[in-house]
Amino acid sequence: ESGLNGLLRPTIYGAYHEIIPLNRPSSRAPKIPVDVVGPICESGDFLGKDRQLPRMKEGDLLVVKSAGAYGFTMSGNYNSRPRACEIVIRKSKYEVAKRRETYNDLIRGESIAKL
Fold first, then answer.
1. Residue 89 and residue 96: Cα distance in Å, rounded?
2. Can you give the CATH number for the domain in which 64 is found?
3. Closest to 36 in 3D by CA, of 24, 79, 54
4. Alpha-carbon Rg of the chain, whole angstroms?
5. Which residues are catalytic?
6. Where in the sequence is the domain holding 96, given as residue range(s)?
7. What's the whole-model pTM score?
8. 2-17: per-residue pLDDT in tens?
9. What is the per-residue pLDDT for 32?
10. What is the per-residue pLDDT for 26?
């Protein structure tokens, strides 16, 4: 759902964010080295390189931890991508702190020029 448009820190200065599967597999599940990349067609669109993760299937979700206050404030709508939601997690409880943007959010305030 996101990439450099939503969390720019790894691209800009190599910030490290722990990345884990949302549904943790068995600790005995074999891990493989992977690059976690985003949907933007840019060479710098990555969230983590050479991470050890279990094999994932289409639709599996990853958690990018410790994005903190800079995630949304540094994010943008590059390539007309809506910003991802932000979720605050504490132990087994979570709350959506900021909802995912919609297409209507992207075009709010715009008009077609009548030149």
1. 9
2. 2.40.37.10
3. 54
4. 16
5. 41
6. 9-107
7. 0.80
8. 889 989 999 999 999 9
9. 96
10. 78
Residue 60, token pair as written in the block: 């599996």
What residues does 63 pair with on adjacent strands?
20
Check: CB of residue 61 under 8 Å from CB of residue 85: no
b/e map 76-106, b = 16+ CB within 10 Å: eeeeebbbbebeeeeeeeeeeeeeebeeeee
Determine, yes or no, domain membership for 3.
no
Question: In one letter, which amino acid is 92?
Answer: S
**pLDDT tens-place string over residues 80-96:** 899 988 888 888 899 99
- Structural domain count, the chain: 1
Does residue 4 form part of some domain? no
pLDDT for the residue numbered 86: 86
**Confidence class of residue 28 from pLDDT cuts 50, 70 and 90?**
confident
Going by the DSSP 8-state scheme, the letter that residue 106 receives in this structure is: H
| 2 domain-assigned | no
- Answer yes or no: is pLDDT of 30 > 80: yes
Tokens representing 92 are: 């087994």
